[in-house]
Amino acid sequence: MVLSFVEIGLEADSRWQELTAGQRPWIRIGTALCGEAAGAFEVADALEMALADQSVSAEVSRVGCLGLCFAEPLLDVQLPGGHRVFYGNVDAESVSEIVSVHVAGGTPIVSKALGYLAEETSLAPPPEGIPDLKQHSMKARENRIALRNAGNIDPLDIYQYIANGGYQALYKSLTELNREETLEEVKASGLRGRGGAAFPTATKWSFLAGNAAADKYVLCNCEEGDPGAFNDKNILESDPNTLVEGVIIAGYATGANKGYIFIRHGHDGPIERCRAAINQARELGFLGENIMGSDFSYEIEIALTGDSYVAGEESALMEAIEGKRSMPRFRPPFPAQFGLFGKPTNINNVKTLSYVPEIVSKGGEWFSNIGHDTSTGTVILCLSGNLKYTGMIEVPLGMNLKDVIYDVAGGMKDGKVLKFLQTGGPLGGVLGADNIDVLLDFEVLRAAGAIVGSGGLIAADDSTCIVDLTRSLIAFCQYESCGKCFPCRMGMSHLLEVLERLCRLEGTPEDLALMQNIGVNMQAGSLCGHGQLGFNPVSSALRYFGPEFDTHINDHSCPTGTCLDSRYSPAASRR
């Protein structure tokens, strides 16, 4: 028998109460990709062994990423009725002590604790000598919406999601709002796509909603092959239910009858956790026929693709789902007219759809009051490179990029000096250290020669050669070009040839004009954004670091010494 949503909510609340205030300690371990890479699975195995060896009973959950990737593996302990105490960079050897002293003994290990997070329902005093994690620079300025549950709930337990407000938005849409009113809430929010183009989400939905076809599809794009970007994967690993709920609401608002979540093959954590979220939603009646007793029926399928960066382009994504090679289509017709399998289709990014449940639940006006000008809401940024604190943050749009680097991320580590930021993925751009005093705003960043794009921010110090970095970006773009259109296929190859020549210190003054000419042709003649934006890394690098290119060309020298490496020698190039 399928329970009503109210009954399911009561059961979820009861289970959550038992976890947080029951008789057993609750231990959470971050096992997203960042945690896995740092050894979280080994720590989890050691934890289970230590609990067994010491005959300690505790609830153990493998959660997602709290955003503090620099501190992974991250483990936190919550005693019954108490606050969460976090331990960073935990290894298998330290687990036994944490279990014996803290879990069993009830005393946090102050010298090893990273910080604590207060539980609102707890009457216990804050642990002495341990800092409040909310005051850490990586957490102090956050406003978590899409990431509200990341690192806090078990991604494989839908009841934990429901206990924290999950599926309230879908219930509200189906019982209080009609399709048009649901769409209106998204419109009022001012939400814009977080996949790179920043197109108004409600406008895009309206194209599909206005099509009266019997079969219509909503697609979610989680290809995410950008170097330096991991926020889409992290949402699926940390809180897949928020995406699943967003995809269902998008289907309801647009009158679609099926959704597809498109994930790059090999991203096992995101795939497995997303599949579990879909299966559990179906078991509780949130997918299938007559959802929550309404006349709305909807299904979701996971579609996988091979390693194809261009598959992230919306029409190439549809080609991949249809079993074809991932190559962009000619347009028109546009997806809302002729999309997947010839049916009207809407495509959004993971982050975009993950905002939807909170927007519908709290109202579009609430979301529109966050952010800056027409860039409403928050932005999820992936911080990597030579920074003191690396990881993932969600901050309001309108925040100064300089504050993100120096206040939130703590500036450069090891006494290094920031030279530039590479922003928005390989098709984004670079910003010199003197040019990062700009707002996180779609239009402001674009005018500065950079984009929010995928949300990746890679910080480079003064030991990095900008010519070599540009060559690396173009090498990636050249390798990932699908080859369908001539301007991109040959343009990327020619740009790479020129940049390789510059890195061998064999460039000529004519090479700068040659690259400019190639870039103009790519932008004008390429079929999709891969070629249209492919010159961005070069143009922005020349804009802010033209003299360094001139030094490579005129003085045949590299200020950082990078291009003296043997891999750029004439002999190496002949090999």
Short summary:
By secondary structure, the chain is an alpha/beta fold.
CATH H level, superfamily name of the largest domain: NADH-ubiquinone oxidoreductase 51kDa subunit
* Beta strand %: 5-15%
State the helicity in percent bands: 40-55%
Distance between the termini: 69 Å
Largest sheet data: 5 strands, mixed
Strand order, sheet with most strands: 2-1-3-4-5
List low-confidence stretches.
Answer: 569-575
Radius of gyration: 25 Å
* CATH topology grouping of the largest domain: Rossmann fold
Q: Which shape, going by the Cα principal axes?
A: globular
CATH architecture grouping of the largest domain: 3-Layer(aba) Sandwich
Coarse structural class: alpha/beta
What is the oligomeric state here? single chain
Please identify the top-level CATH class of the largest domain. Answer: Alpha Beta
Instruction: Give the rounded overall mean pLDDT.
Output: 93
What attributes characterize this protein structure?
575 residues; alpha/beta; Glutaredoxin; Rossmann fold; Ubiquitin-like (UB roll); five-stranded mixed beta sheet; 23 helices; 16 strands; disordered C terminus
Helix and strand topology:
Layout: H1 5-21, E1 26-30, H2 33-38, H3 40-53, E2 59-63, E3 75-78, E4 84-87, H4 92-104, E5 113-117, H5 137-140, H6 158-163, H7 168-175, H8 179-189, H9 201-209, E6 217-222, H10 231-238, H11 240-254, E7 258-264, H12 268-283, E8 299-305, H13 314-321, E9 345-349, H14 350-362, H15 364-368, E10 371-372, E11 375-376, E12 378-385, E13 391-396, H16 401-408, E14 418-423, E15 429-432, H17 442-447, E16 456-461, H18 466-480, H19 486-503, H20 510-525, H21 529-532, H22 536-554, H23 570-574
Parallel strand pairs: 1-2, 6-7, 6-9, 7-8, 12-16
Antiparallel strand pairs: 1-3, 3-4, 4-5, 10-11, 12-13, 14-15, 14-16
